Structures are given as C-alpha cells and as structure tokens.
C-alpha cells in the first residue's frame, strides 16, 4: 500500500497549539507516529525561522479527507503542510533505521523486535514493534512517565495505562512488579499493537486493552496517562474516579503544568512529585489520605 506523509512545519513555540488543533481535529487517532521534536518557548539564541515538525502518516485512501480536515483544524495557525507519498515498505524500513535498542531509567531496556540485544544482569527487556502507534521511548513524555512509574510503583499494584499507544508503559509496569495492567486508547491500531506487544513479551494473561475515548472504571492503584494537557484536563473526572492511589500525568509542556495541576487539585488530589526533560514535564498526584480511610 502507498502511504502519504504530511509534514507540518511551524515555529517551535506553536507546538502545543498545533498538537491541540490536530487532537481536536481527530488526528491523534490515526496520525501516529508523531515526532514531536520541537522546542516550545522561543529562545533568544534560536533563529525565528526554526521550525518544529510533526509527521502524520496515513493510507492514500484517507489522505484527501485527512488533508481537508487538517487544513480546517490548522486554519488559524501559521503552519506549512508538505505532502509526500511513499510505499509502506519504504516508510517502515526508513523509519526502522533510526530506532535502536534504548535503555530507559535504570533497568528498562527497549528492544525493537528486529534488533539484537544481549541482556545484562538486572535488565528488564521490553521487546517492541510499535507499528504505527506512539510509544517507543524516544519521546521525552514517555520517559518522564516511566521515570515516575519506576520511582512510585509498589510491588503487586494494578496499573491502568490511559492512551496506551504501543503498550510500553503497561508492559514496563508489569516488568517492574505490577500484578496486572489495563490499557485504553482511542486509536484501534494502538489497542491492537499494545495487545500484540504485551503478548510478545509473555504478558497477555495479565493485560487487557480496549478502544475508548475516556478511561473506563478500573480497580487501578496507579493510573498513568501520557496525553496532551487539554485532553488530560478534559478527562480529569474519569481519571480521578479510577485512581486508587496515584495518578501520573505526562505529555505536558511546562507552561501548562499549573492548568493541569489545578484541574486535579480541585478534584481532591495533591501533587506528590514531578519529572522534567527539556520543555516537557510530568506530574504525579495522589490522594491526601489512603482511599477508604
Ligand atoms: C503520547 S501517546 C502515549 C503513548 C504511550 N502511552 C507512551 O507513553 O509512549 C498518546 C496516546 O493517547 C491516545 N489518545 C489520545 N486521546 C485519547 C483519548 N481521548 N482517549 C484515549 N486515548 C487517547 C493516542 O491515540 C496515543 O496513542
């Protein structure tokens, strides 16, 4: 099959507006992989013409509709849309060259299924094929969520991965000692990919995933959600309702932290900590008293 890639170019400080417009236009559902590798606030030493870039990938059959929808979604923003077409194989193979075995935190190692890795003592190796889903560990927001998960997860807890993408965080949680995990994503390809990845790592019996736009009630001790600030705020009621002990929120540009934090504080959670990488920040929030006490 031939695929179309839309490369969006824009000034780095517009990154979150562009992401939000795409999310509002429904593009998060099919547009992975997203390479959100732009800086947020303009820096004095960065020339004004520096551009951020997001690559959206879609089958040609959906491309005309996608292009029209994207123009509408981005109409109020100064964004240049460049379109190119390629064979699926070229796209997949080209992309694979750039993703290698990667150590995340102290124990997790992510291994692309096509790469060889000789595990070291203590390594927790995750074998992943992301297909077209988000979540390889190459993006800061995934690493930030994982760092908080590694620090705060307690042995035997149940974990809910909201916006699970490839399932990397759910899989990492199980390898780090969780007793079971659930995943949810509004993209059915992501759900299929997460199920495949968890099965590939022998964890299918302890993992379930489904497609939905909001987190469903699950008896989770730990909820982890790596999505955009506005999406997290929009699903705050559902996230809080299903949080048994702690909630990890990632995907947040630093200047949006006060908005996100406030949305969860007003619902009764307190801030327990954070992690930061470049312009991205993740929060961990929890109940002031253990629930039920
Ligand atoms: C940034 S990716 C995170 C993937 C993975 N959990 C990670 O940390 O790398 C966000 C994921 O959230 C999903 N998503 C976006 N909006 C959603 C919604 N309203 N409900 C469920 N999933 C959503 C996207 O499809 C995408 O897979």
Q: Total number of helical segments?
A: 9
CATH architecture heading of the largest domain: 3-Layer(aba) Sandwich
Distance between the termini: 56 Å
Shape: globular
In the CATH hierarchy, what is the superfamily of the largest domain?
Vaccinia Virus protein VP39
* Class from helix and strand fractions: alpha/beta
What portion of residues is helical? 25-40%
Number of strands: 13
Strand fraction:
25-35%
Annotated CATH topology of the largest domain: Rossmann fold
List the bound ligands: S-adenosylmethionine
Number of structural units classed as domains: 2
CATH class categorisation of the largest domain: Alpha Beta
Largest sheet: 7 strands, mixed
Q: Low-confidence spans: pLDDT under 50, at least 5 residues?
A: 28-50
Helix-strand sequence = EHEHEHEEEHEHEHEEHHEHEE
Strand order of the largest sheet: 9-8-7-10-11-13-12
Q: If you compute it from the alpha carbons, what radius of gyration comes out, rounded to the nearest whole angstrom?
A: 19 Å
Q: What is the mean pLDDT?
A: 83
């Amino acid at each position: 099959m031939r695929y179309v890639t839309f490369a969006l170019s824009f000034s780095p400080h517009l990154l979150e507006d562009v992401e939000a417009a795409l999310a509002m236009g429904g593009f998060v559902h099919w547009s992975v992989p997203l390479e959100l590798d732009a800086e947020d606030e303009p820096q004095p030493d960065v020339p004004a013409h520096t551009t951020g870039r997001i690559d959206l990938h879609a089958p040609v059959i959906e491309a005309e509709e996608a292009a029209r929808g994207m123009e509408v979604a981005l109409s109020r923003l100064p964004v240049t849309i460049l379109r190119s077409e390629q064979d699926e194989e070229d796209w997949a193979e080209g992309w694979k060259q750039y993703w290698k075995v990667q150590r995340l935190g102290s124990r997790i190692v992510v291994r692309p299924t096509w790469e060889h890795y000789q595990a070291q003592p203590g390594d927790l190796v995750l074998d992943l094929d992301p297909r077209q889903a988000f979540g390889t560990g190459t993006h800061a927001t995934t690493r930030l969520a994982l760092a908080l998960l590694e620090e705060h997860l307690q042995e035997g807890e149940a974990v809910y991965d909201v916006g699970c993408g490839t399932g990397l965080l759910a899989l990492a949680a199980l390898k780090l000692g969780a007793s079971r995990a659930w995943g949810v994503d509004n993209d059915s390809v992501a759900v299929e990919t997460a199920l495949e990845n968890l099965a590939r790592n022998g964890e299918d019996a302890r993992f379930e995933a489904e497609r939905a736009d909001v987190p469903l009630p699950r008896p989770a001790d730990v909820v982890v959600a790596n999505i955009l600030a506005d999406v997290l705020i929009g699903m705050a009621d559902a996230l809080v309702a299903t949080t048994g002990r702690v909630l990890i929120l990632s995907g947040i540009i630093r200047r949006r932290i006060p908005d996100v934090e406030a949305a969860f504080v007003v619902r009764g959670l307190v801030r327990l900590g954070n992690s930061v990488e470049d312009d991205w920040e993740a929060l961990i929030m929890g109940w002031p008293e253990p629930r039920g006490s």
